[in-house]
Design goal:
The protein is an alpha/beta fold. The protein has 3 helices and 5 strands, in the order ββαβαβαβ. It has a 5-stranded mixed beta sheet with strand order 1-2-3-4-5. α3 links the parallel β4 and β5. The longest helix is centred in the middle third of the chain and has 17 residues. It is globular.
């Protein structure tokens, strides 16, 4: 997984690329840490360029959501591809994390 950050005054968009699997845990944590350090009120993870998310990746999204709640910022996911969106629906991720299409 690769990523880039697009910060503005109150929001940071984290654009992820590739597959998001168990082995990406350190990279994902670093990405979220970087985004939090900007002082943004909202961190949005854009999945338009992500082909696959495994169960560990889903768990990392939940950990980020819990962190957001405890640190008083908003976490959301945007633009999941159809395959990833189907997985989100199966596990009802959208009931726990805001998932939007832009």
């Amino acid at each position: 997984m690769d990523y880039s950050l697009l910060p503005d005054k109150k929001n940071v968009k984290c654009i992820m690329k590739g597959e998001f699997t168990f082995s990406d845990h350190p990279t994902f944590r670093s990405m979220i840490d970087e985004a939090v350090k900007t002082g943004a009120q909202t961190i949005q993870v854009d999945l338009a360029n992500v082909d696959y998310v495994d169960s560990a990746g889903l768990g990392m999204f939940l950990v980020a959501q819990e962190r957001a709640q405890s640190e008083d910022w908003t976490f959301r996911i945007s633009n999941p591809r159809e395959r990833v969106k189907t997985m989100f629906k199966l596990v009802k991720l959208e009931t726990l994390i805001q998932v939007v299409d832009e």
